[in-house]
């Protein structure tokens, strides 16, 4: 897994992971049968947009609109590369 992230790719949360907000953690988490991954706020923002309908380019645009003035493209691409390598997301 892993590799180059293209802006035309579309991602979703991979099985068996499930993204949800956890009040006890005060953050988004990825739940899976063996445990949980607590996400930082940036990761949570990005993964919320991995909805199997939005392209990477659309995700970057939406986050740019939400956080004006921030140069987020490189960070989003790098995070998606890591998330894909870890099996958290898929483009299937």
Blueprint (SSEs and pairs):
Blueprint: E1 10-13, E2 18-22, E3 27-32, E4 35-38, H1 41-48, E5 51-55, H2 56-66, H3 73-85, E6 89-90
Antiparallel strand pairs: 1-5, 1-6, 2-3, 3-4
Order of helices and strands: EEEEHEHHE
- Strand order in the sheet with the most strands: 5-1-6
Q: DSSP helix count?
A: 3
Query: Helix amount, in percent?
Result: 25-40%
Shape: globular
Strand percent estimate: 25-35%
SS content category: alpha+beta
Count of distinct strands: 6
What does the largest sheet look like?
A: 3 strands, antiparallel
Low-confidence stretches: none
- How far apart the termini lie comes to 12 Å
Q: Write down the Rg.
A: 13 Å
Mean pLDDT: 94
Q: Your description of this structure?
A:
This protein is of the alpha+beta class and 92 residues long. Helix content is 35%, strand content 28%. It has a 3-stranded antiparallel sheet. A 3-stranded antiparallel sheet has the order 2-3-4, covered by helices on one side.
In summary, what is this structure?
The chain is α+β, with helices and mostly antiparallel strands and 92 residues long. It is built from three helices and six strands.
